[in-house]
From TrEMBL:
Residues 157-176 are annotated as: Disordered. Residues 11-158 form the DUF6593 domain. It comes from Serendipita vermifera MAFF 305830. InterPro entries: DUF6593 (IPR046528). It holds the Pfam family DUF6593. This is DUF6593 domain-containing protein.
Length: 176
């Protein structure tokens, strides 16, 4: 049986990600150039920052994992993909290596070196988008899984936007 983590809206900069039945509640917020992911901690009755990232236009992308983590270049955090690959491989806070990649228009997460999706993102324009957790063992690593998902989805949307702009430029050049 799968678990669904619902997004309050289509944004990946300002939203909440939750599964009420499991008591999972994350908040994504943007302050200036930094996107933060916080988890609600029922024991302390407060939000705990589990990670942050910056994707500046003219500087190197940076990531900070954990409440006391140090800023580091993203290229040092993620394993290097192949030359034309858009996949992102990382080690989660549960110690397992995972990979985010596009599969038939969906972003999915697999265990590195294995086939089969562990998590699949369902983006809906008219209803709530959600992450479908197909393997419950990933729940223990949600802090870094969600942080890296936000980065992977942001980069996927940026690639799609760039392709659309290039297609429009070509179309307007052909007609003009």
């Amino acid at each position: 049986m799968s678990v669904n983590l619902h997004f309050a809206n289509g944004s990946i900069r300002n939203t909440t990600i939750s599964c009420d039945s499991l008591g999972i509640h994350y908040t994504v917020s943007k302050n200036r150039k930094v996107i933060s992911l916080s988890r609600w901690d029922g024991r302390t009755n407060s939000n705990v920052v589990v990670g942050e990232f910056k994707l500046p236009f003219f500087r190197k992308d940076r990531i900070r994992v954990g409440p006391n983590g140090k800023w580091q270049p993203m290229r040092d955090y993620f394993d290097k993909p192949g030359m034309f690959s858009t996949s992102m491989t990382f080690r989660s806070n549960n110690g397992v290596k995972y990979t985010w990649k596009e599969h038939h228009g969906h972003l999915i997460m697999t265990r590195s070196g294995k086939k089969g999706a562990l998590i699949k993102y369902h983006r809906n324009r008219w209803k709530s988008s959600y992450l479908e957790v197909l393997d419950s063992s990933t729940i223990n690593g949600l802090d870094t899984i969600l942080l890296t998902f936000l980065i992977a989805e942001r980069k996927k949307r940026k690639r799609r936007e760039t392709r659309t702009q290039q297609a429009e430029a070509i179309a307007s050049g052909v007609g003009g």
